[in-house]
């Protein structure tokens, strides 16, 4: 009898324990109780992302002093996306999208790469892979391109990049004639133009990453990475191509530059005709005009991995953040390590220089961290204020913006959009 009672207690405790902290009702009241755990970041205000979704995600934008966030609800509810303008005190809805799609197919999704949209000349250009949309900041649809690619047999891509009055997107064509294409789309008209074609070897699959575009001697250059994978023997390739759009020809090409042949999903950075590129485990610097390798930093710690992380150009160096606990500042001329910290949070798709500090979010621990940009030493680390209520409510890979006049940071924690006071700047 005692054994049965003990068993019932264990089962009941298991059910209660599993439910605690996860049964979050998305309906009123919308404000949770004040956090009782980490109060490093003071909550100025927080607003639920989507009242009729159990959770959501938000993307933060800053444009000419205006702060905007974009959100979507989760997979279990009616899909919707919205745009809100906000300041230190108020949030105002600008416009929203509620697509009427059979079976609630998700067509308005925030991709974790942050590269599914661009802001150009007061326009919001967004891709859901099959279609490219262009909206005004007021929510008016300017044009819609149901992207067909070559002979209407191609597909779009979940990532785009922008430069001037153009956006760039890769496309593919499968079957016996397996190719990859790079297209240019005019943001005024939505008309597309084929720029570049790359035949794929048999049994190779892969894609272009969105190009980094820049000017060299009045010519527009698009540099992009082609990452491919063999379905037969599992070998990889990672090639770099610099294409002169103005002259419609290849400026230079580097095949299998990355010694691990994998490359990474990080955007290529350009400064003073130098190109900074993250391979799988190494950082490379190339001459942007000739493609000549200037230096390669091969870290002695194989824990450094750069597939989905961040690089940031500073006046005194290049910040490189690995997917794991490492971050380093490299000399831009030589690649030498200026400082290194191997004890920070894992993963970060955004690092910002703010008043001499590096501020970044951590996907692994859900924290926000601040490092001294001169030394790499940790100044403070803060959990998301709501993590003590629900451990899913961390900062993760979400983007953020900071108002430099008020030292207020805007971010989301999967449930709420938050305005938080940064410590140490007043």
Features:
426 residues, mainly beta, five-stranded antiparallel beta sheet, 33 strands, 46% strand, disordered N terminus, WD40/YVTN_repeat-like_dom_sf
What topology emerges from the helices and strands here?
Elements: H1 2-19, E1 42-48, E2 56-63, E3 66-73, E4 81-86, E5 91-97, E6 117-120, E7 123-127, E8 131-136, E9 141-146, E10 161-163, E11 166-173, E12 179-186, E13 192-199, E14 204-208, E15 212-216, E16 219-230, E17 236-244, E18 249-254, E19 269-271, E20 274-278, E21 282-287, E22 293-298, E23 310-314, E24 317-321, E25 327-330, E26 337-341, E27 351-354, E28 357-361, E29 367-372, E30 378-383, E31 401-403, E32 408-412, E33 416-421
Antiparallel strand pairs: 1-33, 2-3, 3-4, 4-5, 6-7, 7-8, 8-9, 10-11, 11-12, 12-13, 14-16, 15-16, 16-17, 17-18, 19-20, 20-21, 21-22, 23-24, 24-25, 25-26, 27-28, 28-29, 29-30, 31-32, 32-33
